[in-house]
Specification:
The protein has 182 residues and is an alpha+beta fold. It has one domain: Gcn5-related N-acetyltransferase (GNAT) (Aminopeptidase, 3-Layer(aba) Sandwich). Helix content is 25%, strand content 27%. The chain has an eight-stranded mixed sheet with strand order 1-2-3-4-5-6-8-7, with helices on both faces. Strand 3 and strand 4 form a beta hairpin. It is globular. The chain starts with a helix and ends with a strand.
Length: 182
């Protein structure tokens, strides 16, 4: 069962030294095309284009519907009325009931370095805890160095192999976070 408190509120963040105010809010149907375009623009920057990458997941075109599933949430980051990124959590496919996956967290270049990654990460992890998950898994690939530093700053630890059955065989770096400790 979804918790309305986890899905109906927006978080506004304003940076003092530069104009970088952004809002993090739950995805809506009207956001599907924008977030699909972001995913399809960002993933090729890192060579994540063929089989085994999230860019080819059918849900990319209907993210709001995919994340309406129980214990799932997807958030968009909006700046000046424009969607510039997003990320979410959902139960880990093929995993145990206590493990979620941080999924499809991508930002346009203009949003990077403004604190949106930390803010969105906090929102996703708080939501995961609210859904009762004890662990959060994610997978990424070599070359996404800034993203990996973000994960590590937020308490994720590298693990030696993939978990679950995400279908993302192109990913080669895996992380896990104990949600009960942080």
């Amino acid at each position: 069962m979804r918790s309305d408190a986890m899905h109906d509120s927006s978080l506004s963040v304003t940076c003092a030294s530069v104009i970088c105010a952004f809002v993090i809010r739950p995805i809506e149907a009207r956001d599907d095309a924008a977030i699909a375009a972001i995913i399809r623009k960002v993933m090729p920057e890192f060579g994540a284009t063929g089989c085994g990458f999230a860019i080819n997941d059918p849900e990319v075109d209907w993210m709001h519907r995919a994340y309406a599933a129980p214990r799932s949430a997807y958030f968009v980051v909006e700046r000046e009325g424009r969607i510039e990124g997003g990320g979410g959590i959902a139960p880990l496919e093929g995993g145990d009931a206590g493990t979620c996956e941080l999924r499809k967290m991508y930002f346009l270049p203009a949003l990077r370095g403004l604190g949106a990654g930390n803010a969105l990460m906090a929102r996703c992890l708080d939501t995961a805890r609210g859904f009762g998950f004890q662990r959060c898994y994610l997978e990424t690939l070599t070359g996404m160095d800034r993203a990996m530093r973000l994960y590590e700053r937020n308490g994720f630890h590298r693990i030696p192999a993939a978990m679950g059955s995400t279908g993302h065989g192109g990913c080669n770096t895996f992380y896990l976070l104990d949600l009960t400790r942080s």
